[in-house]
Specification:
Helix 1 crosses helix 3. By secondary structure, the protein is mainly alpha-helical. The chain has a two-stranded antiparallel sheet with strand order 1-2. The protein has four helices and two strands; from the N terminus they run αααββα. It starts with 19 loop residues before the first helix and ends in a 9-residue tail after the last helix.
């Protein structure tokens, strides 16, 4: 099975007044909404992405947690973080490519698909 290389242009701006976590989550959310990430596609590990962006792993973990809470991604125990079924901009998703923002329902609220609770 050939492995595809995930190419995302993510940047962090320490001069931006917004938190780094929000910057990363926003850029990933845009990539998901635009369809640059396909349903089921694996995201980089938190360690790898933190190293690439020069931020702490906590920052990346926070960004992934926000996307998980919004229904964009799902975690598979021991396997990684993946684009969730029904994420916007995806074939078989809600069919809309509008971007999520706090005033709109999360993608899973529009599709009737509820994200799985995180294991404790």
């Amino acid at each position: 099975m050939a492995r595809r290389t995930l190419e995302l242009s993510l940047v962090t701006d320490r001069g931006d007044p917004g938190p780094l976590t929000s910057q990363i989550a926003g850029q990933l959310r845009d990539a998901l909404a635009d369809g640059r990430l396909a349903t089921g596609e694996r995201l980089p590990s938190t360690r790898m992405l933190a190293d690439l962006l020069g931020v702490s792993r906590t920052v990346v973990t926070g960004a992934y947690a926000q996307l998980f809470a919004e229904g964009w991604v799902e975690g598979r125990h021991g396997s990684g973080t993946y684009v969730a079924d029904g994420a916007l901009g995806q074939p078989g998703g809600s069919g809309s490519t509008e971007r999520w923002h706090p005033g709109n329902p999360a993608p899973w609220q529009r599709t009737g698909h509820s994200p799985r609770p995180r294991p404790r």
